[in-house]
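Anyone up for a design puzzle?
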């Protein structure tokens, strides 16, 4: 889980449990859940946060049923999409142009590293979705993706 994902998850869990400060949640995630995927950590944290028996978020560190909950709905490959697609370490970030390591170290949390290949795939998906919605008469949301802007 990246620091940005940890921050987003902290906001989400804090909305479920306002008595758990976001800063404490982020510390918990950084110290104990950083090696987990966002998906696994999110499923476990929602389980723990909504369980009436839970007093503190630290309960997630116990060996409870929440760690198996995410395994019932998705395969290992679906839970770890980064394992399916190799991005070379020299692939520049589409947002800042730095390599992955440089981007993660120097972006100061302003954005997550996004390789250009993934950006093009997302843009193609959005254009396809827009065309599909138009074809069936569904409302088409304006998109900011423009092929001419993609290098």
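Challenge accepted. My sequence:
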């Amino acid at each position: 889980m990246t620091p940005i994902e940890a921050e987003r998850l902290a906001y989400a869990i804090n909305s479920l449990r306002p008595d758990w400060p976001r800063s404490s949640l982020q510390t918990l995630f950084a110290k104990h859940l950083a090696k987990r995927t966002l998906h696994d950590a999110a499923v476990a944290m929602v389980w723990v946060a909504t369980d009436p028996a839970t007093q503190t978020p630290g309960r997630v560190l116990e060996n409870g049923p929440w760690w198996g909950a995410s395994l019932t709905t998705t395969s290992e490959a679906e839970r770890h999409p980064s394992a399916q697609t190799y991005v070379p370490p020299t692939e520049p970030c589409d947002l800042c142009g730095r390599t992955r390591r440089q981007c993660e170290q120097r972006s100061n949390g302003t954005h997550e590293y996004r390789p250009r290949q993934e950006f093009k795939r997302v843009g193609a998906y959005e254009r396809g979705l827009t065309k599909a919605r138009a074809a069936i008469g569904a409302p088409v949301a304006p998109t900011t993706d423009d092929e001419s802007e993609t290098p």
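A detail worth pointing out: Confidence is low (pLDDT under 50) at residues 72-77, 79-84, 143-151.
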